[in-house]
Design brief:
The protein has about 130 residues and is of the alpha+beta class. The chain has helices spanning about 20-30, 105-115; strands spanning about 5-10, 10-15, 35-40, 50-55, 60-70, 70-75, 85-90, 95, 100.
Amino acid sequence: MLFSLSWTLNGTGGNSENPIWDDIEKKLTLLKSGYGILTLDIHDNDIGSQMLQVRAELGNYLVMLGEIINDDYEVRTYYDEKMTKETICILGDYWSKNQITTDFSFIVQVVYEFFNTGNVQNHLLI
């Protein structure tokens, strides 16, 4: 799979083609201690998973996987049915609290799985 990595972390942005896991892990570390957006795009997929994006602020993380299924673009995300539906602000946008996690190890797990397989299991992102 051919990936590109793009980011805006703590006010600084950039991108790279064909990142290795170490590159991604360094950016995730910056995301953990700060705020911003990290995106992994797959370039050689016409169907299925296309990109994974993590948005973060103040220890709150929103993770979204975009995929093409039956010619439709769909987005899967983390979902905690036990959380309230009140909203939380991440980078100026309001998101339902049940789509937000504070578990950074979960974020690393999801990004690692996407990087290694090009997808994320349905029970992790629905």
